Amino acid sequence: MAEARRKLSSLLDIDFRSLISFKDLNELVSLASKLQKDPTLTAEQLVKLKLIEEIPTFSVVFLENRKVMEHADKFFRTHKDNKAKVTSLKQEYREIKQVVTNLQSEVDYTTMAVQDIDDQIAQLEAHRAKVTKLIGKKKIDKDELIRNQKLVANLIPKVVHEVQLANTKKPEWELKKESGVRREAEILAKFAPLKEFSL
Predict the structure, then answer these.
(1) Separation of alpha carbons 179 and 176, rounded Å
(2) CA angle 118-123-125, nearest 5°?
(3) In whole angstroms, what is the distance from residue 24 CA to residue 9 CA?
(4) pLDDT band for position 72 (50/70/90)?
(5) What distance in Å separates the CA atoms of residue 66 and residue 59, rounded to the nearest whole number?
(6) Could you tell me how many helices (H) and strands (E) the chain has, helices first?
(7) Which long-range contacts (CB under 8 A, 24 or more apart) does 188-193 make?
(8) Rounded to whole angstroms, how far apart are CA atoms 128 and 130?
(9) pTM, full prediction
(10) What phi and psi values does residue 69 have, to the nearest 5 degrees?
(11) Is the pLDDT of residue 19 over 70?
């Protein structure tokens, strides 16, 4: 009995989170059951020993509850990241669109310059070749930007959809998180008396 008292008291000196991680909860329950046969125990001590026997059952509930809360936290992090991503993609799209507009204006302007150069081809042939080369480069740049613009445009509906879908699930996860927090508090409060318990 003395050895059982000593061992159980040393185990109960840790908090509930650490206690449920004890590798052999069956041994903990066995010690509590054994000590209940001690005729010198008070009613309060017997009640707490009975409470110890409930630890394996509540440890499962506690760990499952913790997992739900971790999933809820992950959900909220992903949701926040996606909302930020939508804003960033929209800004990128607007910037690319502006660059494309500017490049198109430049292409239009330069094309008119080429027409003028064609009218004076004899004296401006060297200038015309240079400007034509510039047009080609700007068109390539414009095409590349248009491709990038389309890629960004295609991404926006997908991310918006993910955010909208997450918005519909947000209340459910908020309830799960709130329930998890409340349940954890209840479990911790239930086993709080064991912290000061000694035999």
Answers:
(1) 5
(2) 55
(3) 15
(4) very high
(5) 10
(6) 6, 0
(7) 188/16, 190/51, 190/58, 191/16, 191/19, 191/51, 191/55, 191/58, 192/16, 193/48, 193/51
(8) 5
(9) 0.41
(10) -65, -35
(11) no
Residue pair 194/51 in contact (Cβ under 8 Å)? The answer is yes
Residue 62 tokens read as 């506690």
Kindly state the tokens that stand for 88.
């960033």
pLDDT at 119 over 90: no
Section 125-144 average pLDDT = 86
Residue-level pLDDT at 134? 86
Residue 21, pLDDT score: 64
- The Cβ-side half-sphere exposure at 37, using a 13 Å CA radius, reads 7
Rounded Cα–Cα distance for residues 192 and 51 (Å):
11
Name the helix (H) or strand (E) containing 33.
helix 25-35
Dist CA 11 CA 197 (whole Å):
11
